[in-house]
Amino acid sequence: MIVILKQDVPGTGKAGEVVKVSDGFARNMLIPKGMAMEATEGNVRSLEKQQELQRKKAADSKAHAEAQAEDLKTKKISIKAKAGDGGRLFGAITNKDVAETINKQLGFDIDKKKIELDSPIKNVGSYEVVLRLYPEVKGTLKVEVEAE
User: Fold this and answer.
1) pLDDT at position 34
2) What angle do CA 22, 25, 30 make, to 5 degrees?
3) 85 pLDDT above the threshold of 90
4) Cβ burial 94-127 (10 Å sphere, 16+ → b, else e)
5) Cα three-residue angle 30-36-37, rounded to 5 degrees
């Protein structure tokens, strides 16, 4: 029997795949548990439309992320922090601080997990911060750390 998997089934296939399985496995396990549906002509067409919509949505998201990355290249944010002699900060500037400042100063809502800092910023100065905007799209942003 040919079925369309609704979710990942170990040893059989991933969600959205059309696979051939034994009749008993399909009738007794996959279909009653909602893990698959029979691959009728209408169901296959519906699956193809859903996959096409997902591809278009992913392409739109990637294009938006690329445009956002280009826009961020020209922008810079400044963070003021207390500093001692020699420009050493009391504390550190972390991903969370950078994300909050981006939201306040630029209006972009970027999750702190998408900001790549090798280590927290502990000195006054200018830094390049990498932002993961989409799986294949990365942008850079200048961060100026100033003493209060």
Assistant:
1) 94
2) 125
3) no
4) ebebbbebbeeeeebebeeeebebeeebbebeeb
5) 115
Instruction: Please state the rounded mean pLDDT for residues 14-26.
Output: 94
Which residues have CB under 8 Å from 61's CB, separation 6+? Answer: 134
| Helix spans in the chain (H) | 23-25, 41-73, 95-105
64: which residues sit within 8 A by CB, 6+ positions away? none
Which structure tokens are listed for 68? 């956002």
Count CA atoms within 13 Å of residue 85 on its CB side.
Answer: 0
Q: What phi-psi label fits residue 87: left (phi over 0), alpha (psi between -120 and 50 degrees) or beta?
A: left
Report the alpha-carbon distance of residue 64 to residue 72 in Å, rounded.
Answer: 12
pTM of the full structure: 0.71
Mean pLDDT, rounded, for 44-61: 94
Q: 3-state class of 129 per DSSP? A: strand
